[in-house]
Amino acid sequence: MTPIPGRQRPCTLVVCRGCCCGDARKHPGFDHDGQLERLRSAAVASGGAFAVRTTDCLGPCDQANVIVVQPSAGGRQAGGRPTWVGFAMDDDCTDEILAWAAVGGPGLTPPPAALELQFIEPPRDARVRSRR
């Protein structure tokens, strides 16, 4: 995503698609590509309220699929920090992530209560990077 001049960075969903997340062999019966397309389509339909990007392995492979909900610039100013969601594979989880991102995400809006049950600790090296 390229920032638009004069526009703050929106809430961003970082979708892990590394060694385990998104792997049909590890999680058969789940439409990983369909989930990613759904996230991307919702981001486009939001008119820029949030963005979606993919990345290689985020680390907590035993909790795949992992999605990190990064706060918008305004959310970060309000105290929001990246929120790691593990086991993000069912439609309900995807719905909750999309709804939260659409209304601002971390720092601007509390997360759905059911989604909080899927929050995970980031790997140590990610925690160190986020403090810089």
Please summarize what this structure is.
The chain has 132 residues and is of the alpha+beta class. It is 32% helix and 16% strand. It has a 5-stranded mixed beta sheet with strand order 2-1-3-4-5.
Description of the structure:
This protein has helices at 32-45, 73-77, 91-102, 113-116, 124-130, and strands at 11-16, 50-55, 67-70, 83-85, 119-120. With 132 residues, it is α+β, with helices and mostly antiparallel strands. It has one domain (11-130): Glutaredoxin, CATH 3.40.30. Strands 2-1-3-4-5 form a five-stranded mixed beta sheet. Strand 1 (11-16), helix 1 and strand 2 (50-55) form a beta-alpha-beta unit. 35% of the residues are buried. Residues 1-6 and 127-132 have low confidence and may be disordered.
Spell out the blueprint of helices and strands.
Blueprint: E1 11-16, H1 32-45, E2 50-55, E3 67-70, H2 73-77, E4 83-85, H3 91-102, H4 113-116, E5 119-120, H5 124-130
Parallel strand pairs: 1-2
Antiparallel strand pairs: 1-3, 3-4, 4-5
Helix pairs in contact: 1-3
